[in-house]
Amino acid sequence: MSLILKNVILNQKLCDIKIEKCRFAEIAPTIFPNAGDEVVDAGRKAIFPGFYNLHTHAAMSLLKGLGDDKELFSWLSQDIWPREAKFNADIIYIGTKLAMLEMAKSGTVFFSDMYFEQAAIMKAVAEMGLRAAVSIVGFDMFEAQQTAQKIDAIKAFLDLENPNPDLIQKVLAVHSVYTVSARLIEYTAQTAHDNNMMLHIHASETKKEVEDCKKEHGCSPISYLESLGALGPRTVLAHAVWLDDADIDIIVKNKVKLVTNPSSNFKLASGMFQLDKLRKANCVIGLGTDGSASNNSLSMFDEMKLCSLSAKIQASDPTAAKAEDIFAIATLNGAEIMGIDAGIIEVGKLADCMLVNLDNPQMFPDYNPISNLVYAADSSIVDTLICNGKIIMQNHQLPNEAEVWAQAKAALKHIN
Amino acid sequence: MSLILKNVILNQKLCDIKIEKCRFAEIAPTIFPNAGDEVVDAGRKAIFPGFYNLHTHAAMSLLKGLGDDKELFSWLSQDIWPREAKFNADIIYIGTKLAMLEMAKSGTVFFSDMYFEQAAIMKAVAEMGLRAAVSIVGFDMFEAQQTAQKIDAIKAFLDLENPNPDLIQKVLAVHSVYTVSARLIEYTAQTAHDNNMMLHIHASETKKEVEDCKKEHGCSPISYLESLGALGPRTVLAHAVWLDDADIDIIVKNKVKLVTNPSSNFKLASGMFQLDKLRKANCVIGLGTDGSASNNSLSMFDEMKLCSLSAKIQASDPTAAKAEDIFAIATLNGAEIMGIDAGIIEVGKLADCMLVNLDNPQMFPDYNPISNLVYAADSSIVDTLICNGKIIMQNHQLPNEAEVWAQAKAALKHIN
Predict the structure, then answer these.
(1) How many of the other CB atoms lie within 10 Å of CB of B409?
(2) Does pTM surpass 0.95?
(3) CB contact, 8 Å: B294 with chain A?
(4) CATH number of the domain where residue B377 is located
(5) CA-nearest residue of chain A to B320?
(6) Size of interface A-B (CB pairs under 8 A)
(7) Cβ atoms of A21 and A389 closer than 8 Å
């Protein structure tokens, strides 16, 4: 049984698309369905790949709008930590679902998460039908007892059942060089290497982090992570704002991947990612929204636009960070970094895509639809979302929205 | 006859709101309609003021996505000017309507326009029912014949019939110090002064503009405009990116108003508006999207977010440009600058407002709805738009959308 999308606009041309066994199976002017095929008339909506959000903390959706516009420490200590202390597996399950509601409605098919309670998160992801990388986060505040506990937790995570390996990838994470001991970084890196898992790390987000690391270890966070064996082709560094030329050489040499989170970096006044310079140095770059507490949107539309605009202003060059390149960063690059055979509408690729209303002033005129997506569009244009060949959303509505709302409202009462 | 909005959330409390003779007449827990009143059940949607977009070129909606990511001159000469040469009053009428469709759908009730064919623009505005400031643009490229023609055109504009003075304000404009002669700037400024009209000017947008002005006139564009009598409390300077301390003193002394257009300034790599510094110097600031060719969105949601984020990164201070202040800049400040007695939901004020769906992940949790509007929301949350007491849009749909689409598609064929 296949899914046939009739009357789709692909690259500004009308066609039909057949999806079979999770992949695009045929793209042709007309495809005739067989008995049992599901047929969806796209009604001249345009098809684009879905977005791959390479760095977020999904369950922080329940903390959005708390203590904005504050200094980092008072924000964390007065607003975030007291409520996170009330988080449990149920709350995190619900917060993750709420985040996925926002992500699906804005065209996102995949997110790379860094949070607690992996079993609850995997359950939420499997139920919503999106893709995710779910990580266990190394975080020990340099206390030997916490290090030992976290090592046990990583071992247990390796054995934890994955409810849908087609959608969910288990990965390991290190919170940062300023919160995790060398022992735990080394252990996590070695375990990731031994198990062919990806390793997700916050690195060089702020100037202070870099300065403190130099004082403490005599080198930059990038150099320090390299010395601990944490850098390789499966390492993804989030933020990576404060990189010098030596850092960039290390990143390129080790084929490390980078994820930029421009809204978060701007909102926390951390600094500007050097997109243009890093692309010219052949770094491989993905895009992420960061969590709802520091962005506060999970929309990759917002993030693409700021990613481009930030690069242009930083390079003082309006030709930097062209729309097509930024769209690739948010789609194909993201999928490739995460080892997902998707991110482009081509026969053979996994069917992760969205259908977009073109009768919307954001998408008209159609001189350059990709420019419209990057600079002019927002979540209101996304009608249908398909992930791994299955329809997740139609008419901008998910089937389980009412249930997610009821759960989210109950969870909010619990933490406040 | 009044319009009664039942079950509205105002400042997180449920109430009814009566609108009478274009103004908010009553806000109370329950209002009983009289015979003949129009009653709209808001169904627990939240009410907020609409947005005041203080600088745009509406009809450039038909040029969106053309030649992005190019150098300024090749963009203008290859992409923009050849098509603008095909613009006529009909095309501009349609382009202005298309822009208003995008603006209405993203919560905007007013725009300050700078373009050609004022009669066509005023007709479009009156038909759509939004508010606008419609300007005639001083632009003579220092050629005496053009100066004389433009002076005649300004005189004719003063006599041009205004089809709806409640909604439309005629204003004068000067394109810039690098495109307009001193003679025409002086004439326009004097005419604005004599007729109590506002004066809208692009000023100090790029570093090159400032440097060239210093070479040519021995002073900054701000100082030069002051010397020509063009600065006063009814002058609105768009962009104003490259201001030094002397410029700021002149602006404050003359009570000049500023409009920031962050997306355009980033996209063209012009520079960053000094929001935090200018607010501390007590400058009065509004927000604008600029035209679709240089942003490319007309959504004030995008613009509010970048306005805040840009100010935070520029000041290296996450506490700069708080959500509440940015929201005021986009609403109340904008209305006040333009002399419109609106921008806030209060009895006695003109009824310019939007109703917003709260059952949307962008607006949930509701710890701080204004933070959600500034940092997390996009046009998808706007259900209803009311301008000057009249309902312009419900269910995110305008009554004349189909007609605008048909006209816009026809216009596009004409210019391509």
Answers:
(1) 14
(2) yes
(3) no
(4) 2.30.40.10
(5) A69
(6) 198
(7) yes
